[in-house]
């Protein structure tokens, strides 16, 4: 289906970046906005849609980031926009805990239906991913009567106090912001490129750490990103997630999949756990769920979700009617346009090209990922993380009008999260720019 609105699907540079209008706005930002709020691409947005973002100077950039995996359905998707406008004209807020509304119920019904597990489920809606993770932990502790939460090396779960504790990386997420919430225990992740272990071997290592250092009887939940996001798009070896999930079932702990980055067709299926038929007890979602409006959710087994007393969960804005309208429109667009298949096509195109490039580029340690969630890990001397190279490649892409992001505990990974609706020609052009940047930077680094 072709787009009905939005900017022309092309890359054009009218000025060097940042252009004069962006420069002016950057100066205003410096005088008004807390510097803790950083900037990756110094180009102020004017319009975005499909696979491009147009800035205030008329530069049209290819978007390979989707605002961190949010606008999978496309930025300002016309159907999502119409649904939000229609809702905004009727009512903008009631607080669902005061006067409920149908769209909140319908989002929960949809989530209960599309998440894995053929059992009775319930959902609760929130504003952000971090808030969903906090609530999943609250629910897991309440339902099990246990305190300990198990998380993994390289994990990212948010920036609030509890989710900082759950997150692995110190800079920039944790430095100076402690003390952190207690009863959080970190165990080794499966990272096949760096540990060489099979999934079952890596699971045994993690489980041994849990049993000896925490005690199975104390564990409320094992919380894991099925493919890690900020931590470097680390894809655990096959068998790792199923083994952890099975251990949870045996131990009376809950298995929580944080699908905030991986969910909503990003990896080529509704959820990343589907690739290994893992069925979590609880699943957290946000980012891709509502085409850019702030919506997040916890979905899970009805017995677990229903343990908490009435009034024990909620918030003023959680599941705001505009966000719910956007969420319902996004889910229906994902079905209508089969965006899971689109993600698989993106992998076929981009993954294949990047793997071929890796074969001839020693600075690329690994290309990995699934669907439209792909990453390139840069190394030197056969394995040392090379953050400078990743940074240089990203900067060269930005200067050439292609938005890419870095990630990874060592900052040495470039990640691609294109909108799932990006046109193939535009994606190919973005990859051309990325490949050229990598070849140039790598040959200079060598
Ligand atoms: C982004 C992210 C979060 C936090 O979501 P926010 O909406 O930024 O609070 C949590 N978990 C994962 C896996 C994420 O990618």
Automatic annotation (TrEMBL):
Enzyme class: transferase
CDD domains: OAT_like (cd00610)
Signal peptide coordinates: none
Pathway annotation from the record: Amino-acid degradation; 4-aminobutanoate degradation
EC number: 2.6.1.19, 2.6.1.22
Record-level Gene Ontology MF annotations: (S)-3-amino-2-methylpropionate transaminase activity; 4-aminobutyrate:2-oxoglutarate transaminase activity; identical protein binding; pyridoxal phosphate binding
Keywords: Aminotransferase, Pyridoxal phosphate, Transferase
An individual GO BP term: gamma-aminobutyric acid metabolic process
Catalytic reaction list: (S)-3-amino-2-methylpropanoate + 2-oxoglutarate = 2-methyl-3-oxopropanoate + L-glutamate; 4-aminobutanoate + 2-oxoglutarate = succinate semialdehyde + L-glutamate
Cofactor: pyridoxal 5'-phosphate
UniProt family annotation: Belongs to the class-III pyridoxal-phosphate-dependent aminotransferase family.
Protein name (Swiss-Prot/TrEMBL): (S)-3-amino-2-methylpropionate transaminase
């Amino acid at each position: 289906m072709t787009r009905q609105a939005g900017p022309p699907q092309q890359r054009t540079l009218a000025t060097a970046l940042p252009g004069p209008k962006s420069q002016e706005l950057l100066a205003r930002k410096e005088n008004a906005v807390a510097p803790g709020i950083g900037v990756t691409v110094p180009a102020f947005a004017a319009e975005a849609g499909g696979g491009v973002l147009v800035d205030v100077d008329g530069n049209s950039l290819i978007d390979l980031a989707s605002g961190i995996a949010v606008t999978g359905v496309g930025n300002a998707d016309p159907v999502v926009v119409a649904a939000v406008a229609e809702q905004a004209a009727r009512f903008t807020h009631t607080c669902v805990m005061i006067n409920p509304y149908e769209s909140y119920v319908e989002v929960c019904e949809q989530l209960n239906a599309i998440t894995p597990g053929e059992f009775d489920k319930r959902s609760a809606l929130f504003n952000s991913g971090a808030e969903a993770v906090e609530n999943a932990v609250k629910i897991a502790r309440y339902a099990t009567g246990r305190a300990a939460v198990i998380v993994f090396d390289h994990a990212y779960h948010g920036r609030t106090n509890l989710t900082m504790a759950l997150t692995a990386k110190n800079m920039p997420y944790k430095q100076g912001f402690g003390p952190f919430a207690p009863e959080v225990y970190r165990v080794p992740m499966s990272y096949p490129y760096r540990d060489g272990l099979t999934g079952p071997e890596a699971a045994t290592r993690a489980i041994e750490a849990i049993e000896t250092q925490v005690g199975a009887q104390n564990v409320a939940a094992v919380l894991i990103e099925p493919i890690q996001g900020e931590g470097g798009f680390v894809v655990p070896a096959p068998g790792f997630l199923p083994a952890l999930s099975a251990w949870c079932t045996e131990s009376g702990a809950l298995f929580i999949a944080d699908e905030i980055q991986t969910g909503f067709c990003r990896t080529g299926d509704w959820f990343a756990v589907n690739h290994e038929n893992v069925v979590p007890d609880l699943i957290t979602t946000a980012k891709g769920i509502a085409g850019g409006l702030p919506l997040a959710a916890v979905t899970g087994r009805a017995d677990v979700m229903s343990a908490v007393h009435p009034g024990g969960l909620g918030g003023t804005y959680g599941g705001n009617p505009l966000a719910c309208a956007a969420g319902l429109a996004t889910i229906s667009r994902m079905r209508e346009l089969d965006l899971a298949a689109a993600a698989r096509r993106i992998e076929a195109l981009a993954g294949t090209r990047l793997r071929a490039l890796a074969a001839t580029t020693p600075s690329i340690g690994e290309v990995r990922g699934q669907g439209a969630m792909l990453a390139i890990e840069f190394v030197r001397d056969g394995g040392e993380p090379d953050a400078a190279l990743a940074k240089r490649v990203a900067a060269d892409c930005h200067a050439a009008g292609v938005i890419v992001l870095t990630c990874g505990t060592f900052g040495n990974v470039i990640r691609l999260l294109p909108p799932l609706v990006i046109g193939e020609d535009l994606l190919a052009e973005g990859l051309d720019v990325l490949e050229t940047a990598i070849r140039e930077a790598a040959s200079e680094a060598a």
